[in-house]
Amino acid sequence: MSAPNKPSSTASAEEPALRPHTYDGISEYDARLPNWWLFTLYGAVAFSIVYWMFYHTTGMGLKDEQVLAQKMEAVAEARLASSMGSLTDAQLWEMSRDPKFVTAGKTVFATNCVACHLASLKGKEENPAAVGPSLVDNVWIHGAKPTDLRRTVTNGVIEKGMPTWAPLLGDRKVVEVVAYVLSFHKEPASP
Amino acid sequence: MPGQKVTIEFNDRIVRQFMIASIFWGAVGMLVGVIVAAQLGWWGMNGKFLEYITFGLIKSEGVSFLTFGRLRPLHTNAVIFAFVGNMMFAGIYHSTQRLVKARLASDFLSNLHFWGWQLIIVAAAITLPAGLTRSKEYAELIWPINIAVAVIWVVFAINFFWTLAIRREKSLYVAIWFYIATIITVAMLYIVNHLSIPTSLLHSYPVFGGVQDALVQWWYGHNAVAFFLTTPILGIMYYYMPKAADRPVYSYRLSVVHFWSLVFLYIWAGPHHLLHTALPEWLQSLGMLFSLMLWAPSWGGMLNGLLTLRGAWDKLRTDPVLKFLAAGVTFYGMATFEGPLLSIKSVNSLSHYTDWTIGHVHGGALGWNALMAAGMFYWLTPRLWNTKLYSINAANMHFWLSLVGIMMYMGSMWIAGPTQGLMLGATAEGGTILKYPNFVETLLEIRPMMWARLLGGLLFLAGWIILAWNIWMTVRRGQAVNGVMEVHEEAHDQKEVTLKQSFINAPFLYSAGIIVLTLIWAFSPHTISLLALLMLALVCIMSFVHLQVSGKTWGQWYDQLLCSWFPFTILVFLAVAVGGVVQIVPLVTVDRDQVVEDRLQVPYTPLELAGRDIYVREGCYNCHSQMIRPFVGEVLRYGEYSRLGESIYDHPYQWGSKRTGPDIARVGGKYNHAWHYRHMENPRSTSADSNMPNYPWLLEAKTDSAALPSKIRVQRILGVPYPEMSDEQIAALFDEQAKKIAAELAAPGSDIFVEPDREIVALIAYLQQLGKSQPYTPGAATAAAAKP
After folding, report:
1. Rounded mean pLDDT of chain B?
2. DSSP symbol at B317
3. How far apart are CA B720 and CA B603, in angstroms?
4. CA-to-CA distance for B589 and B584, rounded, in angstroms?
5. Does B232 sit behind a cis peptide bond, omega within 30 degrees of 0 on the bond before it?
6. Element of type H or E holding B709
7. Which residue segments constitute the domains of chain A, with CATH numbers given?
8. Is the preceding peptide bond at B652 cis, omega within 30 degrees of 0?
9. Do A131 and B438 touch (CB under 8 A)?
10. Is the CB of residue B286 less than 8 Å from the CB of residue B268?
């Protein structure tokens, strides 16, 4: 049997020689390893040695938890600085009349609250299968004052299915969504 | 003296059988892929769609055996083991007989291998949709099937090595090296990762738990990719590429270097699937660094494939076989570049848990495996049926459909993954809150990409059906023939090496020395470490100088080694075993109480354990992780990062690898029971626009509480600190907790009335305790057990 895949006669003179042995007609050159390929391999090995020393031998590199702790400290500071502080009932009522807050609150409501309270805010009143109660009637289960509402949204009422929103929404959005809900209600006449 | 002339008739029947099986299962695997892709786009594809396509004749809120969590394992297993498995067997059996000039050793073993493997596939196709699963990715099959797989694999190994033993071609070609590595390594990986203790005929718990289970799983999972989807196909490339191109292989030297570096390095890279998790950081670093070092050896294979085409590139225009093979090898190069990239910790912090990974594996599975399979099949069919390919045009059509399909698939995932990853991590207001607090927002953003992916998959499937048709038409007009070869029976003058010679020689001793010194350097205290580093440098220089001086002798030794299949196989085994030993042994032999950080998991109550097994059965881990990484975005969204001790008693672990839904490591107590009840009944009632399927059967089906005593007995054997409990005590604990939850569900004002023995109750019990661990103090394990 003739080996069918011998190089053609046009091959350049620099073509490396074929190895003597063939397998089922397959022959092999013995070309040098390309330099760039070798550098890639050596480079990766060298990098690995340095990386390992940086993180594991010398302990210079920070662990994941240490990096996180630093970042969370910064978050805590920023939180203190941007806190909405203690708003009074009157201030919250005032915000609920301010289209700036109400529009912002509507967006927050649409993304996070409609699943349980429905877009109409009517919740169970409109559809008994809904998880949340109506927010537009005058029944308030966990306190009727605006500050009560803010507390309910902030801390949640886990037993009733209301999640704790503060860590997800942050103080500002909680206040905005409270303003939005309040915008459907009348401020009670002052005593 | 010329020996006797003999004519060998090859066993090509088995090749034809495996090839046809591969084409068939390939189509099935891809079809299931298209279905699960559609389910990600639209939740109703798990049952509701039946209502639409039968015009309301069939009413369904969801069908258990059609849900994503059960079908996704079917898709992955079908593609890996049924499609690529059968393709690999066809290629190995066909090329090996010719490369070693011998008919397969035993027709009986060949047939047993074929029918045994098909039976296993059928068993998998029944058990996975039925929810019988071990829940470890690509290792989901239940224990009786595991045993069958191991047995059939041994049959394959015996048949293969027996053929090598009776070979007439003494020297082993590079393709055979890769086949040997495949057989040895897959056996090792499969057996270790499937060690489990049965609790019944259909159920078992893996012997490893928590972080150990995660490490063993990805040592296996990653190397299933390496030694089931890569090395056999590289071997196949080394045979069919030079055959189809009619050109010599580019570089034998490169074959040697890239083979040994590939098999040695690959096995270490598993932990790159667990970056930034609770896995100890030294293991994470090993996973990342070995992945980076693997880049060059992988590209060695690509170079040898593509550069073999030098002088034959013009044939790509006319020959569909070469088109497929060249594109396949190119995708191999792309995937093996992307892999190391994704293994870099900072890149992985964005890509992990997202569709980017999904895009990456499909670059490998569609681009490398399926295109190589198609190239090989188009080359084989005319030869195995002694005719011409029915239609070159159809093959070209198939090629372009595949290419466009892959690009759509990978392209959409490249967009979807980073988009969702960035959105999930984005913060606002000075970094104090999440910019997109609702997970569903990020899902809606990438939904168009999910549909693009589906379209890509459909195009690819269409191409595959064209292949099936084309091959069918070719077979119809041809006649099955077995290849024959005339060889001279000659006395062999090549020397074989003995086992001793394979160890006592310069190349082996240098390699062993370098590995041992590297380990001493990496894991020893300062002075010894420094000393080892110096010696390492010395040995490296020595070996380099020695190579320059006696490279020829080393080459002769290697030539001799190639004539000795047994010593060669032993050396391969040693090369692949080192990585696993160094990574796994320290972690599984250490006392579990010693590695937990500051928290320890509380063992599950009987009801919670039953609920957990339902969670496993439904394949929830396919979409929900239970592993919060130490990033600001994750801590804000899910709570504190997960500690190693919090899942230490989980057999199997449930960290997950993909987040189609949010992480639920700390979901316990976040919502009330009713929320979970509604959510499982119809996820959209609690999370608008969720793409999670409905699980209506959980509200009806009864929990299998009878299995609990046996399950808890096995958990005790595995070291989970349960107190000794009688069957009655277990039943009493179960009833008490179930009744309490059912009563809470039926609280005043609620319209939920559910019997305590329903699966939903057990599942809620499980979900509500997620994230409830105890601070760790010595001896706490026993105190935990006292809790009912």
Report:
1. 93
2. G
3. 7
4. 9
5. no
6. helix B708-717
7. 89-182 (1.10.760.10)
8. yes
9. no
10. yes
Q: Using CB atoms and an 8 Å cut-off, which of residues 27-46 of chain A contact chain B? A: 27-34, 37-38, 40-41, 44-45
A79 CB near a chain B CB, below 8 Å?
yes
First to last CA, chain B: 83
A108 CB neighbour count, 10 Å cutoff = 23
CB B247 within 8 A of CB B310: yes
- Domain spans, chain B: 8-482, 499-594, 599-785
Residues B124, B140: Cα–Cα separation, whole Å? 9
Pairs from B534-540 (Cβ < 8 Å, separation ≥ 24) = B539/B510, B539/B513, B539/B514, B540/B514
SS3 at position B278: coil
Closest CA of chain A from B169, distance in Å: 8
Whole-number Cα distances in Å, B370 to A134, B22, B621, B660, B689: 55, 10, 27, 26, 35
- B63 three-state secondary structure: coil
CA end-to-end span of chain A: 111
- Beta-strand relationship, B4-9 and B433-434: unpaired
Q: Do A30 and B252 touch (CB under 8 A)?
A: yes
Residue A57 touches partner B, C-beta closer than 8 Å: yes
ipTM: 0.91
Residue B416 contacts residue B659 (beta carbons within 8 Å) = no
In the numeric block, which tokens belong to residue B630?
């130490």
Burial of B3 (0-12, 13-18, 19+ CB in 10 A): exposed
How far lies B393's CA from each of A56, B61, B322, B366, B370, in Å? 58, 45, 14, 21, 19
The radius of gyration of chain B from alpha carbons, rounded to an integer in Å, stands at 28
Q: Flag if B438 and A112 touch (Cβ within 8 Å).
A: yes
CB atoms inside a 10 Å sphere around CB A60:
9
Specify which residues B287 forms β-bridges with: none
Of the candidates B253, B228, B126, B217, the one whose C-alpha atom is nearest the C-alpha of residue B178 is B228
Task: Tally A–B CB contacts below 8 A.
Answer: 186
Rounded distance between C-alpha atoms, residue B139 and residue B76, angstroms = 10
Average pLDDT over residues B49-59: 87
Which whole-number Å values give the CA distances from B781 to B591, B600, B734, in the listed order? Answer: 12, 8, 21
pLDDT digits (tens, 9 = 90+) for B373-425: 999 999 999 999 999 999 999 999 999 999 999 999 999 999 999 999 999 99
Question: Using one digit for the tens of pLDDT, what is the confidence trace for A89-130?
Answer: 888 888 888 888 899 899 999 988 888 898 889 988 888 878
Looking at domain B8-482, which of 1.10.10.10, 1.10.760.10, 1.20.210.10, 3.40.50.720 is its CATH number?
1.20.210.10
Confirm if B625 and B656 have CB atoms less than 8 A apart.
yes
Tens digit of each residue's pLDDT (9 = 90 or more) over B414-459:
999 999 999 999 998 878 889 999 999 999 999 999 999 999 999 9
> Spelled out in words, what is the top-level CATH class assigned to the domain B599-785?
mainly alpha
Closest to B365 in 3D by CA, of B84, B713, B37, B69: B84
How far is residue A114 CA from its own chain's centroid?
21
Phi, psi of B743 (to 5 degrees): -65, -40
Question: Which of helix, strand or coil describes residue A150?
Answer: helix
- Do residues B377 and B472 touch, judged by C-beta distance below 8 A? no
